[in-house]
Specification:
The complex is a heterodimer. By secondary structure, chain A is mainly beta. Chain A is built from no helices and 11 strands.
Chain lengths: ~120, ~110
C-alpha cells in the first residue's frame, strides 16, 4: 500500500493523559499536513511541514499540541494533558512536488475519544 | 462565518435521481477541490478546478467552477448507493480550507 498511513486508527484515552499519533506520508511527498475534524464539520488545518521544517501552525494548535517530522519522512502529533474537547478525527495528508495546487492525499485518520 | 459555505448541508435522494451540491466562497477562488468522505474514514480526492468556467467529469460526477460567482457546483447524474457519503469542497494553495460538508444519502 503506497497511500498515506495513520496509526492508530482509534484511540480512547482518559482526560489528562498524553497521546501520540503517527503519519507515514506517500514516500516521495515533501509536504505533510495535519487536520482535525469534528462531527458535522469539515477538516480544520492544524499545521504543515515541508520536509522536516514546520512552516505553519494554526491558532487552533494550543501549547498542548506538538508536531514533529524529524527526518522529513513520517510525522508525529502529540497532545499533552488531553481534554474532552480534543475528541475528534485527526487527519494527515501529503502532497508532493514544488508546485502548488496539487491534490492532497489523505490518510484514514485517527479517531480520538477522550473520556 | 465560514470561508466556504456548502449547500445543502444534507441531501436525501432516491437512487437514479440527479443532484447538485453547491460550494460558495467568501473570497476569490483560485482553485477548488472536491473530496468525498465515507463516515469515519479519510478523504478521497475527486476533482480539482483551477480556471473560471472549467468543468471536469469523472464517471457520473461533474464539477464546474464559476469564478465570477465565487462558486463551484458538483452534479451527480443517475445517483447510485455508492455515491452516498460526505462531499467536501476545499480551497487553498498550500493548506486547504474546507466547507462544512454535504451529507448525501441515497435511498433505494
Amino acid at each position: 500500500d503506497t497511500g498515506v498511513s495513520q496509526n492508530p486508527r482509534h484511540k480512547i484515552t482518559k482526560r489528562g493523559q498524553n497521546v501520540t499519533f503517527r503519519c507515514d506520508p506517500i514516500s516521495e511527498h515533501n509536504r505533510l499536513y495535519w487536520y482535525r475534524q469534528t462531527l458535522g464539520q469539515g477538516p480544520e488545518f492544524l499545521t504543515y511541514f515541508q520536509n522536516e521544517a514546520q512552516l505553519e501552525k494554526s491558532r487552533l494548535l494550543s501549547d498542548r499540541f506538538s508536531a514533529e517530522r524529524p527526518k522529513g519522512s513520517f510525522s508525529t502529533l502529540e497532545i499533552q494533558r488531553t481534554e474532552q474537547g480534543d475528541s475528534a478525527m485527526y487527519l494527515c495528508a501529503s502532497t508532493g512536488g514544488s508546485t502548488v495546487n496539487t491534490e492532497a492525499f489523505f490518510g484514514q485518520g485517527t479517531r480520538l475519544t477522550v473520556v | 462565518s465560514q470561508e466556504l459555505e456548502q449547500s445543502p448541508q444534507s441531501l436525501i435522494v432516491q437512487e437514479g435521481k440527479n443532484l447538485t451540491i453547491n460550494c460558495t466562497s467568501s473570497k476569490t477562488l483560485y482553485g477548488l477541490y472536491w473530496y468525498k468522505q465515507k463516515y469515519g474514514e479519510g478523504l478521497i480526492f475527486l476533482m480539482m478546478l483551477q480556471k473560471g468556467g472549467e468543468e471536469k467529469s469523472h464517471e457520473k460526477i461533474t464539477a464546474k467552477l464559476d469564478e465570477k460567482k465565487q462558486q463551484s457546483s458538483l452534479h451527480i447524474t443517475a445517483s447510485q448507493p455508492s455515491h452516498a457519503g460526505i462531499y467536501l469542497c476545499g480551497q487553498g494553495a498550500q493548506k486547504l480550507v474546507f466547507g462544512q460538508g454535504t451529507r448525501l444519502t441515497i435511498n433505494p
